[in-house]
């Protein structure tokens, strides 16, 4: 029986304000780690919508993606369990709104931190993934792509999308 390889699709918010980047500190199986506000893309949402949702859930700040910073492929092998996971990450930059104090942070999130690029670089040993710094470095380098480079077919958002006759949707 064939099994199809399925990478995990994640979205990340690269949020900069006054020369500092917004990171989250979270509990992971590897201990307390730093990450960009990020998470898995949910069924029925576009990547930009998923990024806005994840940023709000993890930081209690509304986030409006305005550009794609990049698309990244990484592999993580968990030593303790032997788990081998490949991630496709779409990272977005954009505009952040005011803190919504009535919202609580996602489970596992300890706090948010505003860090300079130097502080982010100096804390690389605490990053959840090498992509934390890579996305920030690409943002600092001015890497931006229009949101229109990612097309989301309308069928993605339909509750019962019609299946085409023998032709897989891509």
Automatic annotation (TrEMBL):
Alphabetized PROSITE patterns for the sequence: NUDIX
What Enzyme Commission number(s) apply to this enzyme? 3.6.1.-
Keyword Lipid biosynthesis among UniProt keywords = no
Q: Which InterPro entries match?
A: NUDIX_hydrolase-like_dom_sf (IPR015797), NUDIX_hydrolase_dom (IPR000086), NudJ (IPR033713)
Q: Name one GO molecular function term.
A: nucleoside diphosphate phosphatase activity
Its assembly, as annotated, is: Monomer.
Please report which protein family the annotation says this sequence is part of: Belongs to the Nudix hydrolase family. NudJ subfamily.
Q: Under which name does UniProt file this protein?
A: Phosphatase NudJ
The organism of origin for this protein: Limnohabitans parvus II-B4
């Amino acid at each position: 029986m064939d099994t199809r390889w399925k990478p995990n699709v994640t979205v990340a918010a690269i949020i900069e304000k006054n020369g500092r980047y917004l990171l989250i500190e979270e509990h992971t199986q590897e201990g307390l780690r730093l990450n960009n506000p990020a998470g898995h893309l949910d069924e029925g949402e576009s990547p930009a919508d998923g990024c806005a949702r994840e940023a709000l859930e993890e930081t209690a700040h509304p986030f409006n993606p305005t550009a794609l910073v990049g698309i990244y492929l990484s592999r993580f092998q968990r030593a303790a369990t032997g788990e081998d996971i490949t991630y496709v990450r779409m990272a977005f930059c954009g505009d952040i709104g005011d803190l919504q104090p009535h919202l609580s942070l996602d489970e596992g999130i300890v706090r948010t931190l505003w860090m300079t690029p130097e502080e982010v670089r100096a804390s690389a040993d605490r990053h959840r993934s090498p992509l934390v710094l890579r996305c920030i470095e690409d943002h600092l380098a001015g890497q931006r792509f229009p949101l229109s480079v990612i097309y989301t077919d309308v069928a993605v958002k339909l509750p019962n999308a019609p299946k085409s006759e023998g032709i897989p949707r891509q």
